[in-house]
């Protein structure tokens, strides 16, 4: 059985879609999967079982990336084509069965919308995939013993970024109740991510600096070793929740009703004000500290 799975361009949306892939893997354990996604999301699927190939959709003018994807997929007869982008391309390639996500932006959590594509009444939780070498690197970077608090002080938009001094105050408030606790700073690659993480690293000189140093599979393996993750609404937040790490997502001007972290133990803390429109700067430290203590 051959399955085409067209998913997101962003890391967070790609992570949320892994629950559907995990469901399909369990349903069709011998199937071969082709994943189509954006370049930054490729690493989400690098360690996925039964993945035959990944088609990288580089955005091009006049939507020509869809034509490229069509040319890469039209010569295969797919047993199932799943299209989470709601494109027309799935209707133009040979497939015995099709599942196309419709509806665009609408109320409700993204996970519920994704589940509806396969007519699932209970949304499957996102998962992560890592290899033994990823877990070995994680064990070397985050050795067992002291509890580790993971912080994610970055995001793809400055409006979603909780001030750096709040992250520092959060860890210092939690530290007394966790003897020997250490903090690990996670961030993606690139200068912009590094710049957002830099003030937190400077204020916490003993922090484990993982900013820009990990693949997504390694990041998932590292996050799985942490006692708690607290971070901005970002792909890293969704990765932490999918890895099974107790996760607190911080929300201000983005809707937690749609993008709250989804995992075994995960929650969102909202800045006071109109949900999805409140300034992230209005989110007080003590509110996040109280939620973190509850989860710990």
* CATH fold label of the largest domain: Rossmann fold
- Regarding quaternary structure, what we see is single chain
Radius of gyration based on Cα positions: 20 Å
CATH architecture of the largest domain: 3-Layer(aba) Sandwich
Relative strand content: 15-25%
Helix amount, in percent? 25-40%
Number of domains: 2
Topology, element by element:
Layout: E1 2-6, H1 11-27, E2 32-37, E3 51-56, H2 64-73, E4 80-83, E5 98-100, H3 110-117, H4 132-141, E6 148-152, H5 164-174, E7 182-185, H6 191-203, E8 208-209, H7 216-223, E9 228-232, H8 235-242, E10 247-251, H9 256-259, E11 266-270, H10 285-295
Parallel strand pairs: 1-2, 1-4, 2-3, 4-5, 6-7, 6-9, 7-8, 9-10, 10-11
Structure description:
By secondary structure, this protein is α/β, with parallel strands linked by helices. The protein folds into 2 domains: 2-117, 3-Layer(aba) Sandwich (Rossmann fold), CATH 3.40.50; 132-295, Glycogen Phosphorylase B (Rossmann fold). Helix content is 34%, strand content 17%. It contains 10 helices and 11 strands. It has helices at residues 11-27, 64-73, 110-117, 132-141, 164-174, 191-203, 216-223, 235-242, 256-259, 285-295, and strands spanning 2-6, 32-37, 51-56, 80-83, 98-100, 148-152, 182-185, 208-209, 228-232, 247-251, 266-270. The chain has a 6-stranded parallel β-sheet with strand order 8-7-6-9-10-11, with helices on both faces. Strands 3-2-1-4-5 form a 5-stranded parallel β-sheet, with helices on one face. Helix 5 (164-174) crosses helix 6 (191-203) and helix 5 packs across helix 10. The radius of gyration is 20 Å and the shape is globular.
